[in-house]
C-alpha cells in the first residue's frame, strides 16, 4: 500500500522556498484539478438533510480512503422465498446492477427450479473478458450501516455461470457466449460462483438504469420517499450519500448530461475532451483536446483509452487482421505522458479539469492501455485513482453529473489509509466564495522511496489580483516578480519547482509546488503490479500489451471491472 504524504504551507513559506530554489531544474510531473464554478449548472435540491442517507464504506475491507482497492459496502437482502442474507460487496461505478453468485444466494438449491424460470440476464466485464450469466430475482435491500434506515426494492442478478468470452456481441449472442468463443474452462458454474458486485453506474451498454439499486429506493427512515426526493448519490471518502440534498451537493461543479434514451433515469456518459502530452517521447507537441466521453470507475485501478489520430499519439505498431484490414496494436503509454481530461457538456465543454502524469502521480493509474480507432469516439476510463482527491455526484432524476475537489479549502496532512488515522473534515464541500481554480501537485505512484507529494490549493494563491499576461516558469528560468498579495502574480499557468526537467503550464491553476527530494519526505509502498491482459469493449481480447486487439474499456456496451 502506497503511503502518500501531503504538505500544507502558508503562502509566504511557499514563496520563500520557491524563490530559494529557482536555480533547480524544473519537471512537469504535476497532477491538477481545476474547477470553474462560474460555468456550473444551478440545480435546486431538497433542503431537508434527512433526504440523504450515508451508506459508509466498510472499514478495513479495502484501502477505501485512498481508493487503492475497490471500496465496499454492506447490505441485507431478502426475497419472497423467505430467505435473507447479509453481504459485503464491491461498489462499482463502471457497471449497472447488483450481482451475487449462486453460492451466496439463500435458497438457491431449494428454489432452483423456480429461479431458473426467471428473466435471464448477463453482465460483461471487459477488463477481464468475463461474461457472467444468470437470472434476475427481485429482492428487498436494507443497508445495515446506513445513518438512517434505508430500503430499496429491485432486481439482483444471481450468477450461475461465468466464462471468458472472446468475441461476445450482445445484439447477436443475447445473454450467453457461443461455445466456440469460450476461452478455456468455466471460471465458475452453479454454486461455485461467488461474485459480489454493486453496480451503480450509468450508460453502461444494455443494462438498464432500473437495475441500479440506488435508483430503486422506496423508503428513508421507514417513511416512503417523497415526491421531491432526488434519486442519485454522491461518492466521497466516507461512502455513498444516497439521495441528493442542498447540503450533500454543495461545492460540486455540475454538468448537465445528455439523454441516452427516453427511458427513466437513462443518461449518457459525461462528456468533455481528452488531451495527451509527453516530453519524454517523439511527440513534439501536445495533441488536440479531442471531444470524447469519460467513465470514472471505482471497479478497476488501471485505465483504458480509445483515441483517434487527432490525439497526436505516436509509436503505434500495425498488423493486418483476418479481413485484410490494417489495424493498430494497443499500447501501454509510457511514464511521462500527461493525460488531461476536461469534463463538461456540449454547451460548456471545459468545466472541471483533471490531469495526471503517468508513473509520476498517485492519481495516475498503474498503466493506461490505449487503442487507436478512427471510427470510435475518443473515450477514457480513468480507473479509481480519480477518487483519491475527487468526490463525484450523480443526479439520476435531473441528469446531472458533478465533481468536487475533496478537501475544499482544507488540505489534509496526508491521504489517509485507514479510518483510525484520518482527520478529514466532516464537511468536505468547498467553502463558498473560494477561488475558482484549485490545483494539486503530486509525484510517484509506484511506491518508490525518496519521492514526495506536494499539495497546493488555490486557496493559498499568492496574489490578490490575478494577472493573465505572465508566462509560467519554463526551461529558460524566466522568473516573474512574485509579490505576496500584489498584482505581479503568476497566473494563467502552473509554476512547478521540481528536480530535473522543464516546467510546464497546466490549465489555469495557480500553484507553487516543491518537488521530489526537496522536502526530504518520502512516499513509500509496495508499488503496483501490472496486469497481464485486458479486454476490449467489442470483445476482442488483447492479452499482453503486445498482442493483437484493441482495448476500449470505456466504450458503449462495455461493463468494465477488474473481475
Total helices: the number is 3
CATH class of the domain at 50-251: Mainly Beta
Second CATH tier, the architecture of the domain at 50-251: Beta Barrel
Helix content: under 10%
CATH superfamily of the domain at 50-251: Acid Proteases
Number of strands: 31
Instruction: Give a short account of the largest sheet.
Output: 9 strands, mixed
Q: What integer is the average pLDDT?
A: 70
Overall geometry comes to globular
Estimate the strand proportion: 25-35%
* Uncertain parts: 1-30, 409-414, 416-563
Query: Might you state the CATH topology name of the domain at 50-251?
Result: Cathepsin D, subunit A, domain 1
The rounded Rg comes to 24 Å
Gap between N and C termini, in Å?
A: 20 Å
Structural class: mainly beta
The largest beta-sheet arranges its strands as 1-23-22-16-17-25-18-24-21
Your description of this structure?
The protein is mainly beta. Among the domains are: 111 residues, no CATH class; 202 residues, Acid Proteases (Cathepsin D, subunit A, domain 1, Beta Barrel). Helix content is 3%, strand content 29%. The strands form six sheets. It has a nine-stranded mixed beta sheet, with no helix packed on it. The protein has a six-stranded antiparallel beta sheet with strand order 2-14-13-26-27-15, with no helix packed on it. Strands 3-4-10-5-8-7 form a six-stranded mixed barrel. Keywords: Signal.
Which features would summarize this protein structure in a list?
563 residues; 31 strands; Cathepsin D, subunit A, domain 1; disordered C terminus; mainly beta; nine-stranded mixed beta sheet; six-stranded antiparallel beta sheet; disordered N terminus
Amino acid at each position: 500500500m502506497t503511503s502518500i504524504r501531503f504538505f500544507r504551507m502558508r503562502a509566504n513559506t511557499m514563496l520563500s522556498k520557491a524563490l530559494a530554489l529557482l536555480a533547480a531544474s524544473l519537471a512537469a510531473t504535476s497532477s491538477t484539478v481545476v474547477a470553474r464554478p462560474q460555468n456550473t449548472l444551478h440545480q435546486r435540491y431538497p433542503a431537508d438533510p434527512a433526504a440523504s442517507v450515508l451508506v459508509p464504506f466498510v472499514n478495513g475491507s479495502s484501502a477505501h480512503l485512498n481508493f487503492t482497492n475497490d471500496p465496499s459496502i454492506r447490505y441485507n437482502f431478502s426475497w419472497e422465498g423467505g430467505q435473507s442474507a447479509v453481504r459485503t460487496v464491491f461498489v462499482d461505478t463502471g457497471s449497472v446492477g447488483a450481482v451475487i453468485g449462486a453460492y451466496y444466494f439463500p435458497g438457491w438449491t431449494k428454489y432452483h427450479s423456480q429461479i431458473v424460470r426467471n428473466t435471464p440476464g448477463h453482465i460483461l466485464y471487459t477488463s477481464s473478458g468475463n461474461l457472467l450469466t444468470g437470472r434476475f430475482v427481485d429482492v428487498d435491500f436494507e443497508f445495515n450501516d446506513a445513518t438512517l434506515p434505508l430500503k430499496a426494492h429491485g432486481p439482483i442478478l444471481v450468477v450461475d455461470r461465468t466464462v471468458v468470452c472472446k468475441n461476445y456481441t450482445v445484439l447477436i449472442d443475447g445473454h450467453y457466449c457461443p461455445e466456440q468463443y469460450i476461452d478455456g474452462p468455466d471460471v465458475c458454474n452453479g454454486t461455485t460462483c461467488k461474485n459480489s458486485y454493486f453496480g451503480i453506474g450509468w450508460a453502461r451498454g444494455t443494462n438498464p438504469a432500473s437495475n441500479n439499486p440506488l435508483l430503486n429506493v422506496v423508503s428513508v427512515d421507514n417513511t416512503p420517499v417523497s415526491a421531491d426526493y432526488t434519486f442519485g448519490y454522491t461518492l466521497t471518502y466516507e461512502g455513498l450519500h444516497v439521495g441528493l440534498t442542498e447540503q450533500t451537493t454543495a461545492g460540486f461543479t455540475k454538468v448537465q448530461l445528455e439523454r441516452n434514451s427516453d427511458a427513466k433515469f437513462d443518461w449518457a456518459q459525461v462528456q468533455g475532451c481528452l488531451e495527451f502530452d509527453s516530453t519524454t517521447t517523439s511527440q513534439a507537441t501536445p495533441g488536440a483536446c479531442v471531444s470524447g466521453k469519460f467513465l470514472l470507475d471505482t471497479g478497476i485501478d488501471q485505465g483504458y483509452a480509445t483515441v483517434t489520430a487527432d490525439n497526436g499519439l505516436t509509436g503505434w505498431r500495425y498488423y493486418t487482421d483476418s479481413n485484410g484490414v490494417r489495424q493498430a496494436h494497443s499500447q501501454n503509454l509510457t511514464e511521462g505522458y500527461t493525460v488531461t481530461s476536461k469534463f463538461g457538456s456540449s454547451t460548456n465543454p471545459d468545466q472541471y479539469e483533471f490531469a495526471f502524469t503517468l508513473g509520476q502521480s498517485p492519481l495516475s493509474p498503474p498503466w493506461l492501455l490505449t487503442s487507436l480507432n478512427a471510427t470510435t469516439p475518443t473515450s477514457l476510463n480513468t480507473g479509481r485513482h480519480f477518487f483519491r482527491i475527487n468526490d463525484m455526484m450523480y443526479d439520476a432524476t435531473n441528469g446531472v453529473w458533478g465533481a468536487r475537489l475533496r478537501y475544499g479549502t482544507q488540505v489534509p496532512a496526508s491521504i489517509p489509509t485507514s479510518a483510525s488515522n484520518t482527520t478529514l473534515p466532516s464537511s468536505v464541500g468547498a467553502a463558498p466564495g473560494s477561488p475558482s481554480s484549485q490545483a494539486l501537485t503530486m509525484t510517484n505512484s509506484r511506491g518508490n522511496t525518496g519521492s514526495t507529494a506536494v499539495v497546493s490549493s488555490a486557496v493559498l494563491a499568492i496574489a490578490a489580483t490575478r494577472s493573465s499576461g505572465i508566462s509560467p516558469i519554463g526551461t529558460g528560468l524566466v522568473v516573474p516578480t512574485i509579490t505576496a498579495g500584489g498584482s505581479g502574480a503568476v497566473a494563467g499557468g502552473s509554476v512547478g519547482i521540481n528536480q530535473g526537467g522543464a516546467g510546464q503550464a497546466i490549465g489555469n491553476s495557480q500553484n507553487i509546488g516543491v518537488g521530489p527530494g526537496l522536502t526530504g519526505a518520502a512516499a513509500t509502498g509496495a508499488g503496483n503490479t501490472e496486469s497481464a491482459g485486458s479486454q476490449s469493449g467489442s470483445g476482442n481480447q488483447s492479452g499482453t500489451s503486445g498482442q493483437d486487439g484493441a482495448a476500449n474499456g470505456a466504450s458503449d456496451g462495455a461493463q468494465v471491472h477488474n473481475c
